[in-house]
Amino acid sequence: MSRTVYTARAATADFSLGLGLLLLTSCGAPPAPPAASASPGSTTAPVPPPATTPATTPPGTPASGWRTFTTAGRELSFDYPADWTVKDPGGALSGDFVDVMNAGGKQLAGLRTNIATGAECTGKSAYRIFDSQPMVALAEPGAADAGAPRYVFESRGEDTQALATRSTIAAYGITMVPEESGATACPMFHLFLWPPSGAFFGGTYSPELNQTPGDPALPYLEKAKLYASTPEYQDIRTMITSLRPADGIAGSAGK
Q1: What is the 8-class DSSP label of residue 124?
Q2: Cα 80–9–17 angle (5° rounding)?
Q3: Alpha carbons 21 and 156: distance in angstroms, whole number
Q4: Distance from first CA to last CA of the chain, Å, rounded?
Q5: Which of 8-17, 89-98, 215-224, 245-254 has the lowest mean pLDDT?
Q6: Alpha helices in the chain (DSSP H)
Q7: Could you tell me which residues are beta bridge partners of residue 131?
Q8: Angle at the Cα of 51 (from 162 to 62), degrees rounded to 5?
């Protein structure tokens, strides 16, 4: 039986990080770059999360060498490495439309708000969970029945090419969907409730953008598994999981 999950409709311009890829469904997602997937046998059980250590800095306090960004409407804040760049159009769009680039100028994540949410699970596919962590700071009052949002790095599909495909993709972000327990899962829905509707903060894993060790010919999902242990990924994870309501934040440390 299909269970309820969040779907979304962008209320702003087209997402450069490909939000449509994060809404991957059995009935077809928007075209993605040619890609690869996990090895045969990964369809029977998810991959356990890597042994990562959550940031120990108190909430609202950037780690050493990090800066804090606060959205133009002063609603959300997150921390990011000082040598990364955060771009914000400054109210030119309906809702927040923030992009985060690493020191080399490659886009690693995006924050979008004012996204309409719905509910539907049109089909299930093989999946992997590379990392997962609750994010209680983003739990919306009155939405306790949906559970607290959680950060996740996960995949859908089982193709074995070296890059992502239309049916096989990996992504990291924040979701309201409970963790799966079977061999297959509903599409990825990396959205969380945030007034007036919903929001997105994450990105699609790409070996061409995300610094990944190992043989370039490895299957795409094997590369995603390797990426989960890299310093760059740990910085992305720390950044996304630092997202919080901006109440009490002194302001942006820079854009």
Answers
A1: -
A2: 35
A3: 10
A4: 45
A5: 8-17
A6: 220-227, 231-241
A7: 153
A8: 100
In whole angstroms, give the CA distance from residue 63 to residue 251.
Answer: 16
Name the DSSP letter for residue 103. Answer: T
Identify the burial level of 93 via C-beta atoms within 10 angstroms of its C-beta, where 0-12 means exposed, 13-18 middle and 19 or more buried: middle
Closest by CA position to 228, among listed 210, 240, 243: 210
Residue 105 backbone zone (phi > 0: left; psi -120 to 50: alpha; other: beta): left
Q: How far apart are CA 237 and CA 169, in angstroms?
A: 18
Tokens representing 138 are 């983003």
Of the candidates 161, 116, 121, the residue with the CA atom closest to the CA atom of residue 26: 121
pLDDT tens per residue, range 146-168: 568 999 999 999 999 999 999 99
Residue 60, CA atoms < 13 Å, CB-side half-sphere = 8
